[in-house]
Amino acid sequence: MDILALESSCDETSASVVSNGSKVKSVVISSQIEIHAKFFGVVPELASRAHIENINPVIYQALDKANIKFEDFSKKIDVVAFTAGPGLAGSLLVGTIAAKSIASVYKKPLIPVNHLEGHLYSFLVENRVTKPPFLGLIISGGHTELIIVEDFGKYKILGGTRDDAAGEAFDKVAKMLGLSYPGGPIIDKKAEKGNPDAIKFTRPYLKGTWDFSFSGIKTAVLNYLKANPVKDENHLNDVCASFRQTVIETLCFKAFEAAKEFNLKQIVLGGGVSANSLIRKMFIETGRKNKIKIFIPSPLYCTDNAAMIGCAAYLKQKKCGLTYNPSQLKPNPSLVLEKW
Ligand code: KG4
Ligand code: ZN
To answer: Most exposed of 54, 76, 283, 285 (fewest Cβ within 10 Å)?
Structure first.
């Protein structure tokens, strides 16, 4: 089954052709980083305008890269999938309208996908076959969620962030340090050259819950910088390394505690922050020590992309069939994970 999938929930316009839920025939991602960088965050109105401009070229390129001519669409594509939420209302609307239009012109079934399910199943994009149950940790600019995936489409949400998402904390601390947006990859790079033990920021473990809180670390960095303004590049690298260590250790501690508590032998990471080089090392090493298998998508599939949406759509139709009526499908900015 070949699926044309669209993703437009935030600031990436992406289209992908995915075969049988794992083989990516093409994936095209148009990033809006340049547009939003000067505001140090995504400006919703600018994002939806950019999606409108980008969506058609991105779809054409994805089909072209998959060697599919538009006139052969009916023969070559079986299903259209799109991100239905959560995300920015205007951004979601652009992908939804494009998907609905293509599906109705070519009379193809249409599958709405929850963006979080895309991140949860993105490790399958590269055919790293595993089966639930597993613990999912989604860490991105908008989300920090700890979820037990009992089966595909069957979830138990353990906890989430009480304030900033993990990626948001990286982006805000980067802004404090005078670095550009998005801050996660920049802090990550500088941290590689710094000393993670240079500054001791308190770890916000929030004992007794599976929730996270990152705004305290952000304030701790701010207070530290007021008392100790950055004096040179080495100092900057140390602040980045110490901050990164604090956030990643907190995520790692909670995830492994949850895996132990619920006797889960597999942990899956997804979302932009899982591209972080320290999180990849720390999870793999801690997983080896605790005999827990770790699945992390390659960096391309950690951040927002349509291939993960195609993958989640494939799993969904396998379980539920193709019963979606295009006229009833609407984007939902606050969409929650639901049972299939
Ligand atoms: O999944 P994503 O592309 O979009 C959302 O759904 O939010 O994640 C973007 C977030 C940004 O906050 C960015 O700073 C963060 O992921 N990020 C990273 C790294 N690469 C991206 N954070 C830490 N280390 C990285 N290497
Ligand atoms: Zn995302």
So the answer is: 285
